[in-house]
């Protein structure tokens, strides 16, 4: 069994991909009940959250959605009318079609038609594997997950139905570089594009969608203050770095996404992102504490959220190219789960 597909956004904003690596989770937080072992193809229902630690997914089980999890079931679909007993096992392109035709609508319904097209959640089906498919299994579990730019799954916390869907990270998270795009979270000692220094709630005191100019004014003030507190001095300018931030689009606001990151990055080299190493966090400050629930998403953002770089630098120097859509490939299969299927 493997996870396949990633549906980024709503019906008209598809960005589908297959996961090319299987996730390695750090497991439930301390004191959390271990996963309840279930057969997700027979028992999982909408609202169930699933987690696993093993690369072959052999230990997949049901957990409380408040705990760390990698998949939240958004619906159960029967595709037997389109893919009969003699239908070949779907390739990557066919899985994308199944995802768009079935899981997209199920997930939109699950979220009361509020899915942020630029947010942290992606949509995909649980792949039953070739053995189950050959046995005629055509009932699929669709679900929501948080995927990094590489396709690796990241832990989610809380039900997607109640979470702000903004694609934000906790302060102290550094984002790597991948083909001149923002990459997965990495150690700040490794080359990275940005270091997250804070989260701003654009909805605080705002009942209507703030224009880009209004967001610019608010984020300039808030991010400068956050940067001074985070760094404890002039280290940002001394290192030739810039305080930057993200915008939120109208579509995101309408879906309830109202959080935006303040971050620090290096001045781009023309249209090329510049990687840097180290952290600007004040070494004398108390250790950073993650939010509750932690913000650990790393989905590649679409251009509508704003260019990755915003600062007081000239426009030609303060923007970077939007991230390309994830590439599609055939996902790896889980040998153990294939052998258990029947």
Automatic annotation (TrEMBL):
Renumbered to this chain, the Pro residues biased-composition regions fall at 284-293
Q: Where is the Septum formation-related domain?
A: 46-262
State the Pfam families in the record: Septum_form
In residue numbers, the region (Disordered) covers 278-342
Bias (Low complexity):
311-334
Q: What's the protein called, per UniProt? A: Septum formation-related domain-containing protein
Lineage summary: Bacteria, Bacillati, Actinomycetota, Actinomycetes, Pseudonocardiales
